[in-house]
Amino acid sequence: MITLIKLSSASLLSLSTLLLAAAPQDATKLDPSLKGAVKIDGSSTVYPITEAVAEEFNKVAGKVRVTVGISGTGGGFKRFCAGEIDIADASRPIKKAESELAAKSKIEYVELPVAYDGLTIVVNPKNTWCSALTVDQVKKIYSASATAKTWKDVDASWPNTAIKVYSPGTDSGTFDYFKEVTVGKDGSIRSDMSVSEDDNVLVRGVAGDENAIGFFGCAYYFENKDQVKALAIGNGAAAVLPTVETIESGSYAPFSRPLFIYVNKASAAKPEVAAFIAFYLEQAPELVSEVGYVKLPKEISTKVAANWMNRRTGTQFTKPTGEAVTGSLATVYE
Amino acid sequence: MSTHRSIASRLWHDRTFLWACLIAANIAMLVLAVLIISIFWQGFGTLSWSFITHFASRKPAEAGIRAPLMGSIWVCSICALTALPLGIATAVFLEEFAKKSRFTRIIQTNIMNLAGVPSIVYGILGLTAFARMFGAFGTNLDTAITFGNQESLFYFRLPFGSSVLAGGLTLMLVILPVIIIATQESLRSVPSSLRAGAMALGATRWQTVWCITLPAAIPGIMTGAILAMSRAIGESAPILVLGGLLLVFNTPENLMSDFAILPLQIYHWAGKPQQVFHYLAGSAIIIQLVVLLIFNGIAVLIRQKLQKPLQ
Questions:
Q1: Which of A17, A206, A323, B310 would bridge A214 by S-S if both were Cys, CB 3.0 to 4.6 A apart?
Q2: B22 and B77 inside one domain
Q3: Residue contact B243–A71, C-beta within 8 A
Q4: Claim to verify: residue B77 and residue B101 sit in the same structural domain
Q5: A2 falls within a domain
């Protein structure tokens, strides 16, 4: 217990230094003789961030065995709620059913947002007519009920050519999120699209067809900027292009989503897990950008650090009544 | 319809059939050649010794496959060591010892059906039966029964958790039907005169099976084993369900170690946005092919050592 308190205060210190100086430092002060295991599983979207953190952590605390799996957000929560892993990577907040399962097996958890992922809607670079869409227009293209068959159906001044629609796999977190913000939980997305689990296929598909449209996580767009053109998204106000700045500030709405890690509170009492999470929060801003996602704004990361220090348990995305909380991280998270 | 076809016409049919077979065989070879050449083209450049000795990294230049390579070798060895004896024994029982009854017919039909079950279903079975042991022994983080030190070679615990042992046993389930069916087929192809001869000389059933039938059936059994192992080494779905890892910074050191496997690593690299990771995926495929060839080489060796010419 003594070591735990020492460690926590050490990480608090390093965190506050970080927040004040805004200059990420290597956590070389980590005790290199730290031992034990940190088991992580979950979303493959969050994986690149956790991978980077684990790799760096392994360099300073090589005796701690950090292992990371990718059984998906849902699969990760299943194992998390069964008490098999210390940390769950998640590309969406925990669902009501999942948190009930956790409560049933007496697992308390700390919910920590770590980064933003911006869903980018892209077209072919040769597409000269379309550079921005409103959320309603996106809905018109993708929803099952009001399907636009041609570009002309979307906007009367656009060519009368058929739209070729691309989408990530229907069981990915990316698809879930896109569906939720366009047609809502109960709506359905059109079925006559080209679907691929492999985002590279989507990039190639859109890059090869003048009339194509598709969407995927911003990491893929940032890597393939020369092959596809991102669309600005209008949500009531002026249309906003997805950039690091607009995603971070939250003005690229509603297509930016937070990514989370969930920590088992009982595991957090283990010094190696506590050290890993402190390291994670400290290194996240730098590493998140390196792997192609967008770091959290300072106000939010301060709250995240405080919640971790206080071991604040439970989710902030389900009301006590069981209703899901919607809205951007900036307005919801405290 | 001419019933009296000329010699010329019959010979023409003969030649045409030969050509058709040749073309069919060549198409298969061509597809395989294109596949292998394209993989070598893609993956040969990034293949190096450090690629084999390094652990995974987000930086392509430092990335290696040490953990998944060793994980695949451990899991497939466990799979082979458990599936072969079990599968062969089952087949010997069904073919040589069991009386044909309703009971054996039910078993037979079930084995045939199991061979067609999607491998992910075995993953779910393995997760419940091996990794969690139906929850009878607590959870992974809070195991009920442990023997020895985590770092020792003989560390053992219940439940198995997502360990190499659980992974190997799950893959065993996947390939067991294939091995049983192949072994049964090759036992059936052993002439019954051999068995009758052995029996006539006063050999017991055990002696007949061990000294006569099994050695004669070894070629077919080993062919089945090669096919089965090729499947086991390429399976990723059951391991993914079982909680196989992607990132691990140590290689397995006992049966309870965490592990990564090559197919998962390849899948992950192939799906990355950066082109250079696709080359790494190609390199990993080459290594996986080499591992597969080694496993199959062992099977061929066993076949040649044990095979006795029928005389």
A1: A206
A2: no
A3: yes
A4: yes
A5: no
Mutation target to probe the B interface, by most B beta carbons within 10 A, among A55, A228, A273 is A55
Q: pLDDT tens, B108-145?
A: 999 999 888 999 999 999 988 988 888 777 665 566 67
Range of the domain at A267: 9-116+260-332
Segment 175-204 of chain A within 8 Å of chain B by CB = 197-200, 203
| Whether residue A226 is found in the same domain as residue A293 | no
CATH code of residue B299: 1.10.3720.10
SS3 for B43? helix
Quick one: which of B187, B165, B184, B164 has its CA closest to B176? B184
Contact A75, B127 (CB under 8 A): no
* pLDDT at B243 exceeding the cut of 70: yes
**To the nearest whole number, what is the mean pLDDT of chain A?**
84
Do B100 and B210 fall into the same domain? Answer: yes
Question: What is the number of residues in chain B?
Answer: 311
Confidence tier at A55 by pLDDT (50, 70, 90)? very high
Task: Verify that A265 and A243 share a domain, yes or no.
Answer: no
As for how many domains chain B has, the answer is: 2
The ipTM estimated for the assembled molecules is 0.77
Question: Are B248 and A68 in contact (CB < 8 Å)?
Answer: yes
pTM score, whole prediction: 0.80
Distance from CA of A15 to the nearest CA of B (A): 25
Nearest to B271 among A199, A223, A292 (CB): A199
C-alpha R_g of chain B: 24
Determine contact: B274 vs chain A, CB below 8 A.
yes
Residue A254 is assigned to a structural domain of this protein: no
CA separation for the pair A193, A184 (Å, rounded): 19
A204 to chain B: nearest residue by CA? B273
CATH number at residue A218: 3.40.190.10
DSSP string, A155-173: -TTS---B-EEEEE-TTSH
**Given the structure tokens 């599936």, which residue do they identify?**
B83
Radius of gyration of chain A (CA): 21
User: From the list B58, B250, B274, which residue is nearest A51 (CB)?
Assistant: B58
Tokens of B113: 């059906």
Q: Which residues of B touch A66 (CB under 8 A)?
A: 247, 249
User: Per-residue pLDDT for A15 more than 70?
Assistant: no
Q: B32 and B111 in one domain?
A: no
Picking from B55, B139, B246, the nearest residue to A69 by CB comes out as B246
Residues of B in contact with A64 (CB under 8 A): none
Q: Is A83 on the interface with B (CB under 8 A)?
A: yes
Q: Which domain holds residue B137?
A: 48-306
Q: Which residue has the tokens 């869903």?
A: A119
Nearest CA in chain A to B241: A71
